[in-house]
Amino acid sequence: MAGFSWYLSEGFQVIIEKSKEDKCSLNDVQLRFLCPDDLEEVRALCRDWFPIEYPQSWYEDITSSERFFALAAVYKTQIIGLIVAEIKPYLKLNAEDRGILSRWFASKDTLVAYILSLGVVRSHRRSGVATMLLDVLIKHLAGPVVQLPHEHRVKAIFLHVLTTNNEAIHFYEKRRFRLHSFLPYYYSIKGRCKDGFTYVYYVNGGHAPWGIYDYVKYVARAAWSGGGLYPWIWGKLRTALTIAWHR
Question: Keyword annotations for this protein (predicted)?
Fold first, then answer.
């Protein structure tokens, strides 16, 4: 997680709209990574926010392991929001998630970021905290400054969401996450199976598997940038003939 100071607040000069509740200005919100001392507070928040019961080991991992990007928004010493994402190799994804990237990226060097949790305390929702947390994650993985050890190798940020969670779906779609797939019976909540969606945000040149239209568009764009269709075709033909001749 190089490139971040323990507290981050600079650059988020946005004032939220007035409300009857005592909400904060983003100027007063500090960002820091989770640490082991946060475990009990984070567990209480997640139990309040999410219908899924996470095991104790999960809380231990996200508050101590560098494998996770676990960032908290803090206001008056209290955690009011957090985002947790796991950076993992693309080739180690489950079968239902392998299709988020084109086969061009199927290499051991390709990484993806999986958003495990993004939540905000109810009294501070719709104030920009969730957007701020998500923006920091995206900037960390795809910003102009190379961040070790990822080095812009992360090609997609993705997540799963309940099909009935309209508020979360609207939030991610507004931030240009694309609906990728429908996952029937993906969740098991209180003994009942629930359907889910996969949403993806592409970074660092990553993209979804292409169809015929995408290939045609790519060829047309390459031809146009090369000065026209005929010079482009002639250039490709000349290269092919050169290769064949030297064989």
Answer: Acyltransferase, Chromatin regulator, Chromosome partition, Transferase
Q: How far apart are CA 182 and CA 205, in angstroms?
A: 24
213 is catalytic: no
User: Is there a catalytic annotation at residue 186?
Assistant: no
Summarised one tens digit per residue, pLDDT across range 139-153 is 999 987 767 777 789
Q: For residue 49, give every residue at least 6 positions away whose Cβ sits within 8 Å of its Cβ, in sequence order, or none.
A: 117, 119
pTM: 0.77
Catalytic residue among 59, 90, 114, 201: 114
Per-residue pLDDT reduced to its tens digit, 102-128: 988 989 899 999 999 999 999 999 999
User: How is the chain split into domains, by residue range?
Assistant: 23-209, 212-246
* Residue from 152, 160, 180, 207 carrying the catalytic annotation: 160
pLDDT band (50, 70, 90) for residue 182: very high
Q: Which two tokens mark 51?
A: 């219908």
Residues written for the chain = 247
Which DSSP helix (H) or strand (E) runs through 71? strand 68-75
